[in-house]
Amino acid sequence: MKIFADTAIVDEIKKCVSWGLCDGVTTNPSLIMKSGRKFEEVVTEITQIVDGPISAEVVSLDAEGMIKEARPLSKIHKNIVIKIPMTLEGIKAVKVLEKEGIRCNVTLVFSANQALLAAKAGASYVSPFVGRLDDIGQDGMQLIEEIMAVFSNYGFKTEVIVASVRHPIHVKQAAMLGAHICTIPFKVIEQLSKHSLTDMGIKKFLDDWDKAKK
Ligand code: E4P
């Protein structure tokens, strides 16, 4: 499973790259706002740090506006992927953009039917939001299971990006379901490496090593 950094904070992305844990990056308008930086400036900087797909989201609601935003964004770097919201206008834009060779990531996906429409439009990626479904008492990971089954039934090439990840259990479940990609907030990427028994084990080995040297 590929790991994407779900952040627009450059220092976090640099750390993930230094660990070899950054196959790509996803941003959205809220993450850009949190970074405190200008959209195009920060996205351009990310393309210089990460050699993998980098999602940049459009804000227009009509297909024509989305396409108009997407074309210059895609020219920033070959790795830019255009994030398009899951609406009928979005689907219309995806069809046009993918035909032009501009890769799209259909975002804000909350049902298998929405993912089916995105795949039929030829989207390179689809982003189901597991955490936001859990937040309203629905089962986010069940949606991933459904989408993986639908895509496998028809051999769609669209890759599933498990998004809105809140904790390491989401990551483990995404991997167990065979999701192609999991986009993960920085704090959760750090958590993936941790276990209290690992820390206790290291301490015990070092204590015993000191004793062995005496
Ligand atoms: C990534 O593509 C999504 O925009 C992001 O994972 C959304 O996460 P949130 O639900 O925590 O805002």
Summarize the structure.
This protein has 214 residues and is an alpha/beta fold. The chain has helices spanning 10-18, 29-35, 39-49, 63-74, 88-99, 112-120, 130-135, 140-154, 168-176, 186-192, 196-213, and strands at residues 2-6, 24-26, 54-57, 80-85, 104-109, 125-128, 159-162, 181-184. The protein has one domain: Alpha-Beta Barrel (TIM Barrel).
Structure description:
- This protein has 214 residues and is of the alpha/beta class.
- It has a single domain, classed as Aldolase class I (TIM Barrel, Alpha-Beta Barrel).
- The chain has helices spanning 10-18, 29-35, 39-49, 63-74, 88-99, 112-120, 130-135, 140-154, 168-176, 186-192, 196-213, and strands at residues 2-6, 24-26, 54-57, 80-85, 104-109, 125-128, 159-162, 181-184.
- An eight-stranded parallel beta barrel has the order 1-2-3-4-5-6-7-8, surrounded by eight helices.
- Helix 5 links the parallel strand 4 and strand 5 (104-109).
- The structure holds erythose-4-phosphate (E4P).
- Residues 6, 26, 28, 107, 127, 129, 131-132, 163-164, 183 line the site of erythose-4-phosphate.
